[in-house]
Amino acid sequence: MNFIDGGVCAANGFLANGIHCGIRKNKQKKDLALIYSEKPASAAAVYTINAVKGAPLKVTKKHLQNGIAQAVICNSGNANTCNANGIEIAEEMSAITAKELNISSDDIVVASTGVIGQPLNIEPIAAGIPKLAKSLGKNSVGAAEAIMTTDTKIKEIAVEFKIGDKICKMGGIAKGSGMIHPDMATMLVFITTDCAISPNMLQKALSGDVNETFNMLSIDGDTSTNDMVTVLANGMAQNEEITEDGTAFNVFMKALNTLTVHLCRSIAADGEGATKMLECKVSNAETKETAKIVAKSVVCSSLLKAAMFGADANWGRVLCAIGYSKANVDVDKIDVAFKSKAGSILVCKNGAGIDFSEEVAKTVLSEEEIEILVDLNSGVEESTAWGCDLTYDYVRINGDYRT
């Protein structure tokens, strides 16, 4: 498997772009993105389990009932959530896009991100879609820019892999910086591939993967109303279609996981106000579920996140987070270490503190990527979760997010 350029346009038959249509006041900020497949594609999606759901999610879920899609239309700057006419607007976005692309409106994934509960005017979108459709090209970066809200960096990745004797490609873009504590998704992630795979197997692959990737990502403990991950697979690599478990499906899963882990790390590193990406690796747990509970509890701890911001090796906050996680662990067996490119340092052994150099620990924790290594010494299972530090800027960003 190789990393390649191209993002969502890396795979055969996919075009994309993003423009400023007028939803956002800043004309330098793109706010409307379009991804298009030259052929109808197998489609799969996972959605937030927040009881308050954005209208686009409801419309997309209806459109994908047959497991087929051919385009994604997404606006930023307004979530189209808690609006009386939200469904109508989402359907109209689909209809206008379908007309410009000469495809069925039922084959459109529609998404929105931004402020919740703010009226969304369809006029700038309606005026922008024709321009956007005409400017489609190999412009994954443009699409990635157009779905950003408080993100400071675009998030895209692509890989190529082999199914049988055919080279397949897969690419993705994501947005997500705050309000990320997902269940069955993250903020917005759009993945494209030219691999031939049935809708059922594509859904199986995605649903299985997010439990180990996007569901193990937390920025601030808030689950968004608009979280969604979608995958479109148009089959243009001309491999034998994947319709069941086996070697080909395993290769596809590995490619998907490589891509989603990269996007998880990118989102965590770009958390609102963040200065450090945190990766908690739990090893030697009795069960997989225990490892996952412990890893996510650690990266979700506000106290630990604050300690990481200050490069403070306060390992007690790691044990505290494990203790209230309700995971079935023997606290007297837990070892904790911190690691970065500056080195590693053991700070806790068998649930108790040990002598360590605060100076060395400070150096380790002053890097931009920090690993929190938790060894439960009770089994063989493992899991990884991602997050970021908690800084003054997080409060500043969210204190005036709407205004």
* Radius of gyration using CA atoms only: 22 Å
Judged by helices, strands and strand pairing, the structural class is alpha+beta
SS strand fraction: 25-35%
Note the total helix count. 11
* Tally of strands: 15
Low-confidence stretches: none
The major sheet is characterized as:
9 strands, mixed
Alpha carbon gap, first and last residue: 45 Å
Order of helices and strands: EEEHEHEHHEEEHEHEHHHEEEHEEH
Residues in helix, %: 25-40%
Mean of residue pLDDT?
92
Approximate shape: globular
Short description:
Helices cover 31% and strands 28% of the residues. By secondary structure, the chain is of the alpha+beta class.
Describe the structure.
By secondary structure, the protein is an alpha+beta fold. It has helices spanning 55-63, 86-101, 122-134, 140-146, 199-210, 247-269, 288-300, 302-309, 316-323, 358-364, 392-399, and strands at residues 2-3, 14-19, 32-47, 68-78, 108-115, 155-163, 166-175, 188-193, 228-233, 277-285, 335-340, 343-349, 352-353, 369-375, 381-388. Helix 1 (55-63) crosses helix 2 (86-101), helix 5 (199-210) packs across helix 6 and helix 7 packs across helix 9 (316-323). The longest helix has 23 residues, at 247-269. The model has no long low-confidence stretch (mean pLDDT 92).
